[in-house]
Design goal:
By secondary structure, the protein is mainly α. It is about 65% helix and about 0% strand. It folds into two domains: about 35 residues; about 40 residues, no CATH class. It is built from four helices and no strands.
Length: about 90
């Protein structure tokens, strides 16, 4: 049998781990979505935009900050039925 003190200790540890996971997971996901696209992916996306002028507005919006992120490139490529590999 576990003592009351041991149960309380484990309950506190469980709550702390849940809170830290709840705080740091969104930060990690946001940081990973802000990863700049590789030069290969940028060129590929630019080529798709050049072939499809309707995507020019999406390209301009993605490049407002001067950096094309992986998620922005992927969303542009998905509009023409392509996907960006996570390694790109």
């Amino acid at each position: 049998m576990m003592s009351r003190r041991m149960k309380t200790t484990w309950a506190i540890l469980a709550l702390l781990s849940m809170v830290s996971f709840g705080i740091f997971l969104p930060i990690y996901l946001k940081k990973s979505s802000l990863k700049p696209a590789s030069s290969v992916l940028s060129e590929r996306t630019k080529g798709v935009v050049d072939k499809n002028p309707r995507l020019k507005a999406d390209w301009d919006k993605a490049m407002e900050d001067g950096v094309l992120t992986w998620s922005e490139a992927n969303s542009i490529l998905e509009k023409v039925g392509e996907k960006a590999d996570p390694e790109d």
